[in-house]
């Protein structure tokens, strides 16, 4: 009986130590995942088409890292149509895009000199 009591005591003690450590490990993993979510940054691209009346711009772009999106050519909606006024096809740009409700919205765009 004494052996069983010792075994149960040691087991309970071990669980008491391991359980908090596993929550620390899980917490560390969650922080690591959160750290891998990148903050929005400007992306390089080339203007292919501008539709200022509808607030749309077609951009051939490199990887959009903060959205985990590979480079491609696609149509974006401008948050403010005015940011498209000075753009023309062929312009090399840096732009900021965010996903709002599944829609890709350009919030800032700057022509490269």
| Rg computed from alpha carbons, rounded to a whole number of angstroms | 26 Å
Q: In percent, how helical is the residue content? A: 25-40%
What is the H level of CATH, i.e. the homologous superfamily of the largest domain?
A: Copper binding periplasmic protein CusF
| CATH architecture descriptor of the largest domain | Beta Barrel
Tell me the series of helices and strands, N- to C-terminal: HEEEEE
**Rough shape?**
rod-shaped
The strand count comes to 5
Please report which band the strand proportion falls in: under 5%, 5-15%, 15-25%, 25-35%, 35-45% or over 45%.
35-45%
- Please give the largest β-sheet: 5 strands, mixed, barrel
CATH topology of the largest domain: OB fold (Dihydrolipoamide Acetyltransferase, E2P)
Terminal CA distance reads 84 Å
Strands of the widest sheet, in order across it, are 1-2-3-5-4
Which regions are unreliable across 5 or more consecutive residues at pLDDT < 50?
none
Task: State the domain count.
Answer: 2
